[in-house]
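Below is one such protein, fold included:
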Amino acid sequence: MSRGRLFLPAAFAFAAAVAATTACERTKTVTETVFRDTGSTVTVTVHDTVRFNEFRVFNQIERLGNPLVSEALLEKRDHGFHNTGSPATDRANFKAKIVKFITTVAGRSPGTASAIADVLLPDMIVVQTDKAANTAGYLGYVFNPNAYGGRRLQDDVVDISLGAVFGTLVDPSGASPGLATDNVPAFGGGAAPGTTFPYLAAPNAP
């Protein structure tokens, strides 16, 4: 332990004690003794009166997996229903509604509409960690069951989703090419993200 940083062990002990006690189900006292490099000791005593994760209620107010599922394919009155729902019930609750949108608004066949709905539902991004990482890509598993899936920074997910619903991504017949893109360039026309953490590109010039 280097000299000149004497408060780090005490701070660490306090954090450890808090972490230990907040996980308890009943009130208890924890005492931690830490030796500094000066040979003296510091004692931290924490009286825990918090029952962690007990009697707490969390409200789910929004969820988003596959872009445009809620925003474009469901009626506005269903947005709250979708946001407070669960992927486990997505197909039961929303498949018929999405199929209706794709067959009427997008003008696709019932078979294509059903296939697209099955791709986009349940509304969550599929990541197959046992697959090769170089096969990562949004909706990549649609055409390659052995693809990693997920979502890369460079993926234009809105265009990909529009390409599935209106374009040729799933079915070339009955496509509406003019609706298959949002006409916004990748990264908003700015620089591409970097390849190392934190991946942020340089800001655009004013």
